[in-house]
Amino acid sequence: MRSTRKATQSVLVVAAHPDDEVLGCGGTLARMASEGHDVHLLLLADGETARPRVKPSSKLAIRNAAADAAREIMGCSSVEVLGLPDNRLDSLDLLDVVKPIEAAVLRYAPGVVFTHHAGDVNIDHRIAHDAVLAACRPQPHHPVRQLLFFEVASSTEWRPPASSLSFVPNWFVDISATLDKKLAALQAYDSELREFPHPRSLKGIEALARWRGATIGVDAAESFILGRNIVR
Predict the structure, then answer these.
(1) Domains of the chain: which residue ranges?
(2) Average pLDDT, the chain
(3) Stated pTM of the model
(4) Given CB 3.0 to 4.6 Å as the disulfide criterion, which of 24, 37, 154, 173 pairs with 200?
């Protein structure tokens, strides 16, 4: 009899800031981790130092601790925060962003990579997208078979459609069973949450998941744009 058990695989998420990984695909990551996949998080920028009146040492320690707490809630295998300059990734040579992503791909050999949509309002999100494309060029024997681009509440929808690429999802993941883990992981980043009707509120984030789910006939979902899918 043929086994129906899914083969496990390595998954890499490349997000610009700590909390983007949860906002963009936290329910999907929790689901994949529960299915036995090894999920690794690479967070590029520190997420704090661009803000006024920030004391970097204390704020960065809190944000990094939140990233690890969120990782544990979702069941992910590892998290690394590179600490690149927040909202200033465009001040770096793109190669300096690409190299640590290439190193992570070499280390984890992921079959699936998640990253940002190209049309977000946040410059770091757009740089992350371009750097992932460079690091995941489909060269012979490259491990990455699938690229998926996620949306981030309070960034993706704030970019007017006439000014850039619109987020038009064509890939959906049912997170009905893991929406609670996504929301719990977001609460680890409580300083980043806002009051409703801000889109980066728990109520707003849940509403988005419910709407994405309703569009495909399930209780809750996360949506993506498929960038590449290689069938071998």
Answers:
(1) 10-229
(2) 93
(3) 0.94
(4) 154
